[in-house]
């Protein structure tokens, strides 16, 4: 039975070392594989390398009774990657999950916020304090660049060029990209770097751009806490998550005429289809605004 854990460990090393996935992503993959292993032991089947197409279909049927289609599809995708790895490494001759059908998942439109709503949050930030300057810079970057929260907390001061108005983003899979920076971010970041960041860090020394009030690099959890605090201070009922800001950035860019390829590059999407969903948002937004504003849009 230990062989199963060893294989899972080898796959995790492959994800981290070769595919350059984040630790969180690798853990999510191994968690899904661990669920399959628990199922095999519970049903008294042999180990991971003894899974047949019949057992694979049996397991997927069991997943369908417990999870939503989107979750089932994700778990199947994980297991397909795992068994492709086992075949490539010579641990198995055939791939048991290739014949399994992935359930169709209706893509939900990403949530976004209107410009006037987020401007209220910006306006509520106290720009006279070090904390406020940090919060303003953080919110500006997330909203005007569309970077992921994991990318945001990894930004170093050397990645930011205020003169060139560019940011080097260290994205998924170890892929770097250059993102343009707006004038407002450049101004707020320069002010933050001149005094606020140094004051918060005191004697601590590290290259991370964003710091918590103890002077340490801010974490993803810390960013979520900051956003929640900003909403409370603004008296807003918005649901402002880091990914919501990313969606908002994309939808606002496209609605104002940015071309799809440029937005794809800025977001760091590998496939254009991931970016195309935002065009649907702009269509739905336009329709909603029309129904709300036009005097003859609705029946009396």
Can you give a write-up of this model?
- With 300 residues, the chain is mainly alpha-helical.
- The protein is 59% helix and 4% strand.
- It has two domains: 2-88; 115-240, hpI Integrase, Chain A, CATH 1.10.443.10.
- The chain has twelve helices and three strands.
- β2 (166-170) and β3 (176-180) form a beta hairpin.
- The longest helix has 22 residues, at 272-293.
- The protein starts with a helix and ends in a 7-residue tail after the last helix.
- Residues 289-300 have low confidence and may be disordered.
Task: Tell me the layout of helices and strands.
Layout (H helix, E strand, L loop, with lengths): L1 H16 L5 H20 L10 H12 L4 H20 L26 H10 L5 H16 L3 H4 L7 E2 L4 E5 L5 E5 L2 H19 L18 H15 L7 H14 L4 H8 L4 H22 L7
Antiparallel strand pairs: 1-2, 2-3
Name the CATH architecture of the largest domain.
Answer: Orthogonal Bundle
* Contiguous helical run count: 12
The main sheet comes to:
3 strands, antiparallel
Question: Under the CATH scheme, which class of the largest domain?
Answer: Mainly Alpha
Query: Mean pLDDT, nearest integer?
Result: 82
**What's the structural domain tally?**
2
Short description:
With 300 residues, this protein is mainly alpha-helical. Helices cover 59% and strands 4% of the residues.
């Amino acid at each position: 039975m230990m062989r199963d854990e060893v294989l899972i460990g080898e796959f995790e090393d492959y994800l981290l070392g070769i595919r350059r996935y984040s630790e969180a992503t690798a853990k999510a993959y191994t968690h899904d594989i661990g669920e399959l292993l628990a199922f095999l032991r519970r049903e008294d089947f042999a180990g991971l390398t003894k899974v047949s197409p019949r057992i694979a279909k049996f397991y997927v049927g069991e997943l369908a009774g417990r999870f939503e289609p989107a979750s089932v599809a994700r778990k199947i995708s994980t297991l397909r990657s795992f068994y492709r790895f086992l075949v490539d490494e010579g641990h198995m001759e055939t791939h048991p999950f290739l014949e399994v059908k992935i359930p169709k998942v209706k893509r939900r439109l990403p949530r976004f916020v209107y410009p006037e709503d987020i401007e209220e949050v910006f306006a509520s930030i106290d720009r006279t304090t070090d904390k406020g300057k940090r919060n303003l810079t953080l919110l500006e970057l997330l909203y005007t660049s569309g970077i992921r929260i994991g990318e945001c907390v990894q930004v170093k001061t050397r990645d930011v060029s205020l003169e060139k108005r560019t940011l080097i983003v260290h994205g998924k899979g170890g892929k770097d990209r250059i993102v343009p920076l707006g004038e407002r971010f450049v101004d707020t970041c320069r002010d933050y770097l001149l005094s606020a960041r140094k004051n918060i860090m005191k004697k601590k020394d590290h290259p991370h751009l964003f710091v918590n009030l103890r002077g340490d690099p801010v974490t993803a959890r810390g960013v979520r806490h900051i956003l929640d605090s900003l909403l409370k201070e603004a008296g807003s009922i918005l649901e402002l998550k880091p990914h919501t800001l990313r969606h908002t950035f994309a939808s606002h860019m496209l609605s104002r005429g940015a071309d799809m390829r440029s937005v794809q590059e800025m977001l760091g999407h590998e496939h254009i289809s991931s970016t195309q969903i935002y065009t649907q948002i702009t269509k739905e937004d336009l329709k909603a605004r029309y129904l709300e504003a036009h005097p003859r849009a609705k029946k009396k």
